[in-house]
Amino acid sequence: MNVDGDQFVECGLGHRHWGKYGAAGLLLHHGDMVLLQQRSALSMGPGTWGLFGGACARDEPPVVTALREAAEESTVDVRTVRVRGVLREDHKGWHYDTVVADVESLPEVLPVSWESMDARWVPSGQVADMDLFDPFAHSWPKVRDAMRRPVLIVDTANVMGSRADGWWRDRHGAATRLRDQLDALDGLPLPPFDVAYPEIVMIVEGKAGGVGDSERVRVVSAPGEGDDTIVDTVREYAGEPEAEVFVVTADRELKRRSQEAGASILGPRWLLDQLSR
Ligand SMILES: [Zn+2]
């Protein structure tokens, strides 16, 4: 597909780039294996290895660009990929977004457009040894460290207690409202990403119990003390490879226990600010 951004532009740093409205690429990985595209003889950097991707259309979100381009240029079934976050390189007036995503199994991927010579799964430790497309060679060290899977665990009682919305009259209703707001979030600034799409887990207790999962939010009802369930949930995720776990709470003791279990801590105010953006 030709998009309205398909042209060369000069960025504020004086480089020449493809993509009037910026460009985006898909860093797809399965565990340690990374999908690379060998660029065709007719493209910039002929024969070098980089990411499937291309120019953004006007107002097109980078995740959409990266998945669209990957689907146009290869046999990747983008319905099976899980997007974890976006890393942005800002070139003053132009930007390149690396969309980090993973797949549960390692599918065979073939190149299908004139833009690609080949496609290959490469162990991350061997990527730097390949003949890389210059911009990708430049971004790879940062991208490599971002092959992560963000998880956000919410201390629901603590977050609800941080806003005066009448939660004390109807804890179940307030927890449901919070769940729906979390479900509607379009990305969060969680390191190492500029925009992350975390798995979200709400821990509810007492009268807020019985709130069900939504499409994007897993709700866990604590059988007793919510703090114990939160720490158990941190352990459950932090034990998985690539997981980057964040706990939202202002509770001092819970912060300490969560950090010990492998999580980073964010405050309720931070989350409420994100919800009101
Ligand atoms: Zn530039």
Q: Could you characterize the architecture of this molecule?
A:
GO terms for molecular function: hydrolase activity. Its cofactor is Mg(2+). The protein has 277 residues and is of the alpha/beta class. It folds into two domains: 8-144, Nucleoside Triphosphate Pyrophosphohydrolase (Alpha-Beta Complex), CATH 3.90.79; 149-275, 5'-nuclease (Rossmann fold, 3-Layer(aba) Sandwich). Helix content is 27%, strand content 29%. It is built from eight helices and 15 strands. It has helices at residues 62-73, 124-127, 134-144, 156-160, 171-183, 226-238, 252-260, 268-275; strands spanning 8-10, 16-18, 23-30, 33-39, 49-50, 52-55, 82-90, 95-102, 116-123, 149-155, 195-196, 199-204, 217-221, 243-248, 264-266. Strands 3, 4, 5, 6, 7, 8, 9 and 11 form an eight-stranded mixed sheet that branches. It has a five-stranded parallel sheet with strand order 13-12-10-14-15, with helices on both faces. The model has no long low-confidence stretch (mean pLDDT 94). Bound molecules: zinc ion. The site of zinc ion has 6 residues, from loops.
Number of helices: 8
SS-based class: alpha/beta
> What's the mean pLDDT score?
94
Would you identify the CATH architecture of the largest domain? Alpha-Beta Complex
CATH topology of the largest domain: Nucleoside Triphosphate Pyrophosphohydrolase
Point out poorly predicted stretches: none
β-strand number: 15
Q: Give helix % range.
A: 25-40%
Please write the string of helix (H) and strand (E) elements. EEEEEEHEEEHHEHHEEEHEHEH
Q: How is the biggest beta sheet arranged?
A: 8 strands, mixed
CATH class of the largest domain: Alpha Beta
Number of domains: 2
Binned strand content: 25-35%
- The radius of gyration over CA amounts to 21 Å
What are the distinct ligands in this entry? zinc ion
CATH superfamily of the largest domain: Nucleoside Triphosphate Pyrophosphohydrolase
Distance between the termini: 34 Å
InterPro entries: NUDIX_hydrolase-like_dom_sf (IPR015797), NUDIX_hydrolase_CS (IPR020084), NUDIX_hydrolase_dom (IPR000086)
Pfam families: NUDIX
Organism: Actinophytocola oryzae
Keywords: Hydrolase
